[in-house]
């Protein structure tokens, strides 16, 4: 698993919008990049999707890009194939790029285990936080620890996040094979 202080592995992945997204370009253009391994069918992801969109809305003007990457096996889980991803992005009106990792190489390089599983990279590509978005997938009003939001605030202020890791909560990534 990618450890705090290590460089995030590069990627160039297709998005549901027809563009290819390259980590190097994202890092050049932003002060921080949030990579969230995601999918279409997981109830945990679905519970957090609104908060993912709110994070992008709240931090876009501060130079933060959020990207979601779906690496799930699309053969055994057809709800996670590229066409279904396009439909989900349209249905939810995602305000962030939704990318496909067919080879699962990016997910493996990051050590992603669940959907969702977040990785916060600073502008140099260094991992500053890894884990859950917050501490309550089920009820946004009951959240007591906004792990990702707090880590973003710290990184943008040039500080070390208080919580650098938390346990990823969600469905396991559906590996090929």
In this structure, how is the largest beta sheet organized?
Answer: 5 strands, mixed
Average pLDDT, rounded to a whole number, is 97
Counting helices, strands and paired strands, the structural category is alpha/beta
| CATH secondary-structure class | Alpha Beta
Low-confidence parts, pLDDT < 50 over ≥5 residues?
Answer: none
List how many beta strands DSSP finds: 9
Strand order of the largest sheet: 5-4-3-7-8
Q: What is the element string, with H for helices and E for strands?
A: EEHEHEHEHEEEHE
CATH homology superfamily: Glutaredoxin
Summed up, the domain count is: 1
Could you provide a short overview of the structure?
The chain has 177 residues and is an alpha/beta fold. Helix content is 29%, strand content 21%. The chain contains five helices and nine strands.
Fold and architecture overview:
There is one protein chain. With 177 residues, this protein is of the alpha/beta class. The chain has a single domain, classed as Glutaredoxin (3-Layer(aba) Sandwich), CATH 3.40.30. Helix content is 29%, strand content 21%. The strands form three sheets. The protein has a five-stranded mixed beta sheet, with helices on both faces. Strand 3, helix 2 and strand 4 form a beta-alpha-beta unit. It is globular, with a radius of gyration of 15 Å. The protein starts with 11 loop residues before the first strand and ends in a 5-residue tail after the last strand. The mean pLDDT is 97.
